[in-house]
Structure formats: structure tokens, C-alpha cells
């Protein structure tokens, strides 16, 4: 039995844009906005119905819990179970902050919310929790990435992907790409580096490969390499094994690293060296047996 659970949930777009009096869309009426409002309201209803259901199930099992919206400075140490209600973004936020707690991701709206990382939906949450309470589950490791900037670790739990590029998306990204000691100068729109979990997202849309989420590997893909006359690129994309180190030496005065989306970023400048490799801190993932 768990002593105390944390529910981390997202605020719906309907709540943020249409119910918030500080929003420019609050109270606005016209045909186009009404159509958007209807879709957002439906998603809002489905999301909060799932949140209420999760709370009801925890109460039925007499599991104490507290709930907080994502984005708040929430402490995790006092909880031995963390449940996210939302989609992959909410799951990723929790995954960056937990220590040894069990993490359950509940996709709150399977029709509209991306939840590839989530453990279950509202329909299967009750049975998932029942199986966990009966110890009918297996822990598997999801391998994350660790990132160094000039030999200092700046991030050790990237579960999805990294984008290294110029801070202005319209500007060219210039850098040296080094893979296991072999270096190549590249001019591109930036470079994706993704975990197996992140292989179904942006890197896949850009032409990368889907990888089994439990693999101990990572992959890279240079975006829109500049076709210099007479220049041949050898490191366009590829899979790096568990012992590999990918190093990027910036030739940009104003570059940036984006980690797991747009919520965490770090500026880089000319000469900064970024190293990326498998983190020594994998995330424990729950798989129900049978």
C-alpha cells in the first residue's frame, strides 16, 4: 500500500485561453472562435472527467493523495506514488523530478491527447492500479540522456529528445559534430538527438527511425543540411550505442539547447562543447504482467 500519492495534472487549453480573464480570448465571440471553443471545451470536459475518476479510484483504495497542476514548484520527496493526468508533456515533467517513486501516466483524453509515454488511459487506470497493488507488474528501464556543457553536467534525465540549434530558427546552425572521436563540420537547421522513447516524435517526422523504447541506445539526425558545393556529409543520421558519446562544438555566437520540448533550454555560444551520452539514471517504467 502507498502512504501518499501525488497527482500531477495539466491545465486544459480551454481553461488557459477561454476561462482565464487575463486571456485575450476571454469572452470573445465569433463563428471561428466558437468552433475552436467547442473543441477545446470537449477536451476540457474529458480531461477533468479523467482527473475526477483517478481521484475516486484512489479514494476507493484509501490512498491519500494531493494534486497540483504542472508547472508549479512541487516537491516530490514525500510521495511514494506519482500519477500524471494529461499527456506526454505532463509525464515528461514528472519524469524529470521523481527519484525512486513509481510513476503512472494516465492519458486523460485518448481522442485528442498524445500519450505514447503514458501507462494507461482512464478506462484502464483502475485495473492498472489493482495490478500494481497486487505486485502484478514488472519494472523495465527507460534509458535517458545526460548532457554536459564544457565538462559540467547540466541535465541527467532527458527522456525524449534534444535539439541543438541557433537561437533564431531562421538562422543557420554551425557546429562540429564529433561521434566517438571522428569530427565533421556541419551547416544545418540544427541537430536532433533522441532517446528510444523520443524516436516516435520529432526525429521520426524528420526522417529518423523508430526504436524499441527499452533499447539502450540513442540516435541523431541533422536537420536540413546545407548543400555546400563540393561538400559531402557523412554524419547525416545514425544510431549510437550505449557506450557512444556525441559531441557538438558550437560555431554559433547565439545557440541554444532545447531539452524535452520547449520548457527547458540552455544558451550556448561560440566554442562551447556539448556532450551527450546515455545517463546513468534510467527511469523505472511499469509494465503490467499478463
Give a description of the structure:
- The protein has 290 residues and is of the alpha+beta class.
- The chain folds into two domains: 5-135, Rossmann fold; 145-280, Probable inorganic polyphosphate/atp-NAD kinase, domain 2 (Tumour Suppressor Smad4), CATH 2.60.200.
- 21% of the residues lie in helices and 35% in strands.
- The chain contains five helices and 19 strands.
- The chain has helices spanning 13-17, 31-60, 88-97, 122-133, 202-205; strands at residues 5-9, 65-69, 81-86, 102-107, 120-121, 137-142, 145-149, 152-158, 161-166, 173-179, 182-188, 191-194, 218-222, 237-240, 246-250, 255-259, 264-268, 273-278, 283-288.
- The strands form four sheets. It has a six-stranded antiparallel beta sheet with strand order 8-7-18-15-10-11, with no helix packed on it.
- A hairpin with a 2-residue loop joins strand 7 (145-149) and strand 8 (152-158).
Provide the succession of SSEs: EHHEEHEEHEEEEEEEHEEEEEEE
* Residue windows where pLDDT falls under 50 for at least 5 positions: none
Radius of gyration using CA atoms only: 21 Å
The helix content is 10-25%
Biggest sheet architecture: 6 strands, antiparallel
Question: Class by helix and strand content?
Answer: alpha+beta
Beta-strand content estimate:
35-45%
User: Given this structure, which CATH class of the largest domain is correct?
Assistant: Mainly Beta
Shape: globular
The CATH homologous superfamily of the largest domain is termed: Probable inorganic polyphosphate/atp-NAD kinase, domain 2
| Mean residue pLDDT | 93
Number of domains: 2
Distance between the termini: 21 Å
Q: What is the strand arrangement across the widest sheet? A: 8-7-18-15-10-11
Total helical segments: 5
The CATH architecture of the largest domain is Sandwich
Q: How many distinct beta strands?
A: 19
Remind me, CATH topology of the largest domain? Tumour Suppressor Smad4
